[in-house]
Amino acid sequence: MDRGLYIAASGMLAEQIRQDQIANDLANASTPGYKGDRTAQRSFGDLLLANSTNGAAVGRQSTAVQVDSIETDFSPKPARETGEPLDFAINGEGFFAVQTAQGVRYTRNGQFSLDPQGRLVTAQGDPVLDTAGRAITATDGKVDARRVGVVALTDPRKEGDSLVTGTPAGAAAGTVRAGALEASGADAARSMVDMIASMRAFEAGQKVIQAIDETLGQAVSKVGSVGS
Amino acid sequence: MLSGLNTAAAGMAAQQQRMDAVANDLANANTTGYKHQRVGFRDLVYEQTGRSSAQGVRTGSGAAAVDAGRAFGQGSLQRTDRPLDVAIQGEGFLRVRLADGRDALTRDGGLHIDGNRRLVTATGALVQPAITIPEGVAEDQISIGADGTVLANRQRVGKLDVLTVRSTQGLLSIGDNAFVATAASGAPVAAPQATVLSQGALEASNTDMASAMVEMIESQRAFQLASKAITTADEMMGIANQVKR
After folding, report:
1. C-alpha distances in angstroms, B120 versus B82, B163, B189, B190?
2. What count of other Cβ atoms lies within 10 Å of the Cβ of residue B5?
3. How many Cα neighbours within 13 Å face the side chain of A71?
């Protein structure tokens, strides 16, 4: 069958994944410290087309498109003032370190509170670590922002629950500020534009399939029919 | 495709939860000692996507609202000049006993004298430890010191207990301006020395109208954005349905 059908279908499937990614960005438009994603596509399986009678090369043709990766933009976003003593934002690069049941994880969502032992914890109840990697105990309900550790990460990867995994690479340059939260990295305007573009690309894929289908239909019904 | 629908719906549900909290804050803009709610968000799990993507390509599944407890920032003091009004300045709560026998904490210091001459809050909860005002002492003969000592006609009749807990986030809000200590909050302990009571004043709600309105607008727009993602996903399913005419 015409390979164009499959190429167009693969494009539609890739746009669906992009759409899922955009929906996630939009759903997290208010999540503090959230980092937006970008869906990267690439063609795969190039074929070298050749003339079937004399073997002369015609050129390359891609056989499909594939979502290659979803890249997260970890660049710092502006902080907004909340006035809450236990809200923290990192100015510049770096992550807060959090001791979870699965090991140390990292986050830029600094909406913390205190647990019954008076330790600084995340919304999930996991202790936040200081510059030396120990839990932080508050005094009189407050924590000095300078005590909160900021860790640089190589290969950060989002894990859900506002947590990020990665390889720690020492202290980061960012400084911690109390009474503020980092805004979400989801860019509403760009997401809307991407969403429209993606939907239209999806629609174009549909049109290509229909066009190829029509061509095939012609081939089936018209070729070989004698007379009008 | 369906995953995008659910992702966006999760985001909408989260925004709705924040909207409920903002509505409650606004409704309590004039409630004595009210503390506004802190609603946070988190993203949900990231999963490997299905076909037509390389290994390691993961899409998220939306957002959820997180209850970060109350914001116990100080509300402004309103002078009432009523001798039985006390406002707490700083961290801490008055200890009261509810009608059901539970001990609770409150920052609503609008006190009254009940039929048995005991000090009670506006909702009828007994101040703990119980303080009885002797017969014949008028309200304006009562003086409440910065440390909570209650004098009736210059005679000491008791002391208001000012307590706090380690984790105010863990307090259970039970309505009637009262909170109950739980295992998550830790047992009540004495409030820091810096906390003082001031007689003849009440603590206003700490709902900030301006920021509550901004939050409401933000919530509504974020809700709308997520709903657009659903519309688009729906349109795309329509397009997919039209592949075969």
Report:
1. 15, 17, 21, 21
2. 18
3. 6
Q: Which of A75, A140, A141, A82 is nearest to A110 (CA)?
A: A82
pLDDT tens string A43-72: 877 878 888 888 888 888 888 888 888 899
One DSSP character per residue, A168-228 reads EEEE-S-EEEESEEEPP---HHHHHHHHHHHHHHHHHHHHHHHHHHHHHHHHHHTTT----
Is the pLDDT at B167 greater than 90? The verdict is no
Q: What is the distance in angstroms between the Cα of A91 and the nearest Cα belonging to chain B?
A: 20
CB contact under 8 A, B63 and A28: yes
CA distance A215 to A207: 12
Residues A90, A182 contacting (CB under 8 angstroms) = yes
Relative to beta strand A113-114, strand A79-81 is unpaired
Q: What percent of chain A has pLDDT over 90?
A: 67
Q: Strands (DSSP E) along chain B, which ranges?
A: 37-43, 46-48, 58-60, 63-70, 77-79, 86-89, 93-97, 103-106, 112-113, 119-120, 126-127, 142-144, 149-152, 155-159, 162-164, 172-175, 178-180, 189-190, 196-199, 201-203
Of A6, A12, A15, A17, which to mutate for an interface test with B (greatest number of B Cβ within 10 Å)? Answer: A17
* pLDDT (tens digit per residue) in A93-152: 999 999 999 999 999 999 999 988 889 999 989 999 999 999 999 887 789 999 999 999
Mutate to test the interface with A, among B12, B42, B66 (most CBs of A within 10 A): B42
ipTM of the complex: 0.85
User: In angstroms, rounded to a whole number, what is the distance separating the alpha carbons of residues B190 and B55?
Assistant: 56
Helix (H) / strand (E) containing A68:
strand A64-72
Residue type, A29: A
> B105: which strand partners?
B95, B179
Looking at residue A64, its pLDDT comes to 86
Q: Which tens digit of pLDDT belongs to each residue from B61-116?
A: 999 999 888 898 899 999 999 999 999 999 999 999 998 999 999 999 999 999 99
Q: Which residues of A touch B43 (CB under 8 A)?
A: 24, 28, 31, 34, 158, 160-162
